[in-house]
């Protein structure tokens, strides 16, 4: 799949949930941990 098409689809999924309902907006530690995991190979 084209990388830009994949991003477009993923963006739609993220926008479907209101900001106040997103788990990372409620829990900064959870977001920080996920960011670290995402940076690992």
UniProtKB/TrEMBL annotation:
InterPro entries: Stress-induced_KGG_rpt
Source species, domain of life: Bacteria
Disordered: annotated segments: 1-41
Pfam families associated with the record: KGG
Protein name: Stress-induced protein
């Amino acid at each position: 799949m084209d990388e830009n098409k994949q991003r477009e689809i993923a963006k739609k999924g993220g926008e479907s949930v209101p900001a106040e309902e997103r788990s990372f907006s409620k829990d900064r530690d959870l977001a920080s941990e996920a960011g670290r995991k995402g940076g690992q190979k």
